[in-house]
Amino acid sequence: MDSYISPVELENAYRLINHGPTVLISAAHRGVENVMAAAWACALDFSPPRLTVVLDKTSRTRELVEGSSRFAIQVPTAAQLQLTRDLGTTSLVTEPCKLVDSGVELFYIDGYEAPFVAGCSAWLACEVIVEPHNQKTYDLFIAEVTGAWADRRVFQDGHWNFENAEPQWRSLHYIAGGQFYAIGEPLRAQAKESATAGA
Amino acid sequence: MDSYISPVELENAYRLINHGPTVLISAAHRGVENVMAAAWACALDFSPPRLTVVLDKTSRTRELVEGSSRFAIQVPTAAQLQLTRDLGTTSLVTEPCKLVDSGVELFYIDGYEAPFVAGCSAWLACEVIVEPHNQKTYDLFIAEVTGAWADRRVFQDGHWNFENAEPQWRSLHYIAGGQFYAIGEPLRAQAKESATAGA
To answer: Phi and psi dihedrals of A16, rounded to 5?
Structure first.
């Protein structure tokens, strides 16, 4: 594991995806590993940290997730633009050498079943909370986050630091047809004196 | 309705939120209107277009959504940074003049029950698909998108055009503690010759 990778407190895990980045979803089952790109992943709860992800029935990754009940979500960087695109537009079903062809590098962390993608900025280990109706009707998977890590060069003390990191660390935000945006500049709103939680 | 607002084809509605912006959620029921900010909204399907949104049980907006089965999702702009922050940190429950104090301006579109927030870059009219288990257990709401619009100054021909619009039009991406990022610069990945759909 890269020496820049640091654990993130589970209560702050949502922050790794709160800004809506396109993510990579990885899983392994019975000797098969796969990685796909997905724009439809979203935080669901703070504590325990949970998230949702949409996995189409045609995807091989979904089979691996259903088989192992584990997956990893990771935040790819601008340096991984082409990798992210390639992993999102090729299928292991039709291209058995998808992973080799893409050049993706996987690694494992002790205690976690799913493979992680090297070179990303943040990683979330996830365990599926089985909800057959959601999975069948909406392709919607709910999972609990059981581990979180980030690269210290771009996420420190519970906050992203895109503005001071090299531009290659920016997260990717996919629209359609190969069109991505990188995350941009920081904006800080003022707290209201009377601010309360809720809405 | 502002003359720059144009309908977006429903099949392209997902593109309005695909890049993961923080959104404003508005609803009205029995004479009460409310708007809240939310980072946890996500596309769920292309056709029919569906999305998910997380609505905490303490939020007044949730009551209005449950009462009317309708809401609107809109994409606020960098010019609306403070408005977005204020709408996300004050509650109509404890601050009855929340909307007036925030300065938010609402408008209606014929045929749609929920109010829309003026000055945003994109709007999605939504109808709740009632899923009691998800709503109760996870605060998770699934909805179908029944109408979509965008401001032509920043979204044209089915694509965002942040790079050529004024910076005030950039979408907001919330982290935590008042820390937002604006969406950044465009990145374009190359299509693989053998690219297929799926993953």
So the answer is: -70, -25
Q: Rounded distance, CA A142 to CA A123, Å?
A: 17
Helix, strand, coil fractions of chain B, as percent rounded to 5: 20, 40, 40
Binned at pLDDT 50, 70 and 90, residue A191 comes out as: confident
Is the residue at B193 inside a domain? no
Torsions phi, psi for B85 (to 5 deg): -60, -45
Burial (CB count within 10 angstroms: exposed 0-12, middle 13-18, buried 19+), residue B9: exposed
Structural domain boundaries, residue B163: 5-182
Number of domains in chain A: 1
- B113: how many CB neighbours lie within 10 A of its CB? 16
- A88 and chain B: CB distance < 8 Å anywhere? yes
Query: Which chain B residues are Cβ-neighbours of A78 within 8 angstroms?
Result: 187
Per-residue CA distances from B99 to B34, B75, B119 (Å):
7, 17, 15
d(CA B99, CA B108): 16
Q: Return the structure tokens found at A130.
A: 């089985």
Which run of H or E residues covers position B126?
A: strand B122-129
Residue A178 one-letter amino acid: G
Q: Does some domain include residue A193?
A: no
Domain membership flag for residue B151? yes
pLDDT in tens, A58-68: 999 999 999 99
A54 touches chain B (CB under 8 A): yes
- Pairwise CA distance, residues A22 & A16, whole Å: 11
Instruction: Indicate if the pLDDT at residue B192 is higher than 80.
Output: no
Among A15, A134, A140, the residue with its CB nearest the CB of B175 is A15
**pLDDT range class, residue B194, cuts 50, 70, 90:** very low
Question: For residue A92, what is the domain's CATH number?
Answer: 2.30.110.10
Q: Is A75 on the interface with B (CB under 8 A)?
A: no
Q: Do A90 and B184 touch (CB under 8 A)?
A: no
> Cα B125–B107–B165 angle (5° rounding)?
80
Q: If you write DSSP's letter for every residue of A137-164 in order, what string do you get?
A: HH-EEEEEEEEEEEETTTEETTEE-TTT
Q: Say if A190 falls within a structural domain.
A: no
Running DSSP on this structure, what letter comes out for residue A191?
A: P
